[in-house]
Amino acid sequence: MKINELSKNIDNQRIDPVYLVQGNDQYLQEKVEKALLSIIPDDQRIMNVGILDFEQTTMSNILNEVESAPFFGERRLVIVRNAKFLTGERLKQKVDLDGLVNYLNHPEPTTVMVILAPYAKLDGRKKIVKDLKTKATLINTDSPSENEVRGYVNSDIEHNGYQIDNNGMNLLISRTDANLATIMNELPKLYLYGVDSKMITEQAVSELVPQSLNQNVFDLINALLNSNIKKALDIYADLMVLQEQPLRINAALLSQFRLLIQSKILSERGFSQGKVAEELKVHPYRVKLALQTSRRFNLERLEAGYLGLVDIEHQLKSTTRDPQGLFELFLVKFNNKKKI
């Protein structure tokens, strides 16, 4: 189930006893939580809403909350955040899940239990995961595709009485890596900027929305692979002026080259763009850009770039050499290799 269907169900009072909200998109997780909170009237929330963090409580406390009756209200809402017991991650202490399994078989009719699992993947081998997937209502909050991001953004813009031109939307997507939470945080500035015209333009986005480190790194790598040494140096220098740490810049470059290599290998094995994103657990928009770039270069050239950056990382950690000088030397060496 998607957020839109959930909202319609809540409006029509079709409310289920247990919800599992799974996916790693922060904005969608928060939007789903807010929608479910609306089940309880404002004046009843102090007594009839319980919010627990699994990392800071026990399963016994969680079960006590869901088994409690509402106080002067029709329903009680219990939200359990950070449900790590559904993943393959090792927990600090053993969790007795028998009580939760029993609860799923006989949930309290006046309680709405919401389990938030902000993870890309759950451990499907676990009995509790299997039980939840069959007995709870599943709400998907996976990272949305680029088209879905555009849909959410357009919906918010129209809801606030604004419009955005195509160039403005494209630049907004590019500068934020199509990250929905980032975009939603930037929109209030754009609304204020265009309060008179009710129009969000490319110029407004250019002036108000900073380009992410990932996007700067992507532009830098494209310049590097296309032997545009001056542009690559200019972007690196700009990042230094913005006080980005050399090790952080290099780590981002390594991550992007790794993504280019992995995307190319998987694509050549027949993986679709969506399957590549799923396999690598990377935002679909980043995979789209990576595939567009990696198709133009052979694997040997991409690996040469990656290994050169590994060498920079070693020198940054073990010597006092100037970071910008190391990067310039890397550019020269890399540019002297055979280009495809």
UniProtKB/TrEMBL annotation:
Listed GO biological process terms? DNA-templated DNA replication
- GO cellular component terms attached to this protein's record: DNA polymerase III complex
Extract the InterPro entries matched here.
DNA_pol3_clamp-load_cplx_C, DNA_pol3_delta-like_C, DNA_pol3_delta_N, DNA_polIII_delta, P-loop_NTPase
Asked if the Swiss-Prot or TrEMBL record annotates the protein with the keyword Nucleotidyltransferase, the reply is yes
Which domain of life does this protein belong to? Answer: Bacteria
SUPFAM superfamilies found in the cross-reference section: P-loop containing nucleoside triphosphate hydrolases (SSF52540), post-AAA+ oligomerization domain-like (SSF48019)
Tell whether Cell membrane is among the UniProt keywords.
no
Q: Where is the DNA polymerase III delta N-terminal domain?
A: 19-140
Q: Which GO terms describe its molecular function?
A: DNA binding; DNA-directed DNA polymerase activity
Q: Which family does it belong to?
A: Belongs to the DNA polymerase HolA subunit family.
Q: What is this protein called?
A: DNA polymerase III subunit delta
Q: Which organism is it from?
A: Pediococcus argentinicus
